[in-house]
Amino acid sequence: MFTLDVNMHEVNSMLFTHGKGVGDIGIWHKRVGHVNFQCLKFMDKQNLVGGLPKFGAEEVMSEVCEACQLGKQARHPFLTQTTHVSSKPLEMIHSDVWTTKIKSIGGCKCYVSFIDDHMRKV
Questions:
Q1: Mean pLDDT over residues 15-24, rounded?
Q2: What would the pLDDT profile of 20-41 be if each residue is shown by its tens digit?
Q3: Of 92, 96, 93, 36, which Cα lies nearest the Cα of 61?
Q4: Domain extents for the chain?
């Protein structure tokens, strides 16, 4: 968690320096939340980001952004109907063990669950 001091007049979230790489579109793509090139141009036109350099129409990112590619990957949906392997109660039991910082009434910090595959009872 972070505290917010509402009495401060201005807070700079980025340090702008002049030098090599400051105008790189890939760096600015990451700095402003992985936005696309059209959004960067819009931010420049509206003066929404201080220190944003002018990018030419021919400028493109030199490398593919790995974070953006991972975020765009699709995954298959979960099955809505599952088939139970067991044909009678107690034939297959699923179990899980976990710990917590909060102690139980008896002072325990570990929990175990057992689920019957056939009856789905916990």
A1: 50
A2: 444 577 888 888 888 888 888 8
A3: 36
A4: 25-72, 79-122
